[in-house]
Design goal:
The protein is of the alpha/beta class. Helices cover 40% and strands 15% of the residues.
């Protein structure tokens, strides 16, 4: 019997992922993804960006307000901070592939025209979007994956992942049938949310230190 569920009710992007093609084909297909309800409120799909030959793939949680408006990942304040941290750690941002576990912006908004407030995606939503991330990994085949925050870690390593326990160490795990090297760290937005200058400085230095582990793994 054929299921009558709409793809978004089934919570999987699988029907929208093309069987073949590179990043350009994936990006075109993702623009029409209706694999979960998050597409309804978002302005557009925000797919990954970067070269298909990138040695390192950086995985965040989801696009933010600016990313949703511009259609590109990591173009807001957190993205600019990440670029600076990568450069300090010895990784050229232009040579990295950046993406998110979830490709649509999830937010709350008290009233129209009010500021849109980021809302963390659920594990169900991250799982629904998982086929896109799996497809990106299959095409890029990075030497190293950098997990930016808990959501990215849970999307690839399971719900028991804790960034505080794993950060700053070189990990090896099987992901989608392929042995991957990973380094976990905090999401750059958490640095921006630090309470004062001292806390922000310490958080930023911790991010750079974790990224230096990634840089050494690539050297």
């Amino acid at each position: 019997m054929v299921s009558t569920k709409a793809p978004e009710d089934a919570y999987t992007a699988e029907p929208f992922v093309p069987d073949r093609g590179g990043l350009a084909a994936l990006r075109r297909a993702a623009a029409d993804c209706r694999g979960c309800p998050l597409h309804r409120a978002a302005t557009q799909t925000v797919f990954g960006a970067g070269t298909a030959h990138a040695r390192v793939m950086l995985v965040g949680e989801q696009p933010g307000d600016q990313e949703d408006r511009q259609g590109k990942p990591f173009v807001g304040p957190a993205g600019r901070l990440l670029d600076r941290a990568l450069e300090e750690a010895g990784i050229d941002p232009a040579e990295a592939y950046v993406t998110n576990a979830v490709k649509h912006f999830k937010f709350t908004q008290a009233e129209p025209r009010k500021r849109r407030i980021h809302k963390a995606p659920t594990l169900r939503e991250m799982t629904a979007c998982g086929p896109w991330l799996a497809a990106e990994l299959a095409v890029v085949e990075p030497e190293l994956i950098v997990l930016l925050g808990a959501s990215a870690g849970k999307a690839l390593l399971g719900s028991s992942f804790r960034v505080g326990e794993a950060r700053g160490a070189l990990l090896e795990r099987e992901i989608h049938g392929r042995q991957e090297k990973l380094v976990a760290t905090v999401h750059p937005s958490s640095v921006l949310r630090a309470q004062d200058d001292a806390d922000r400085k310490a958080a930023y230095e911790g991010l750079v230190s974790d990224l230096q582990v990634a840089a050494r793994a690539l050297s």
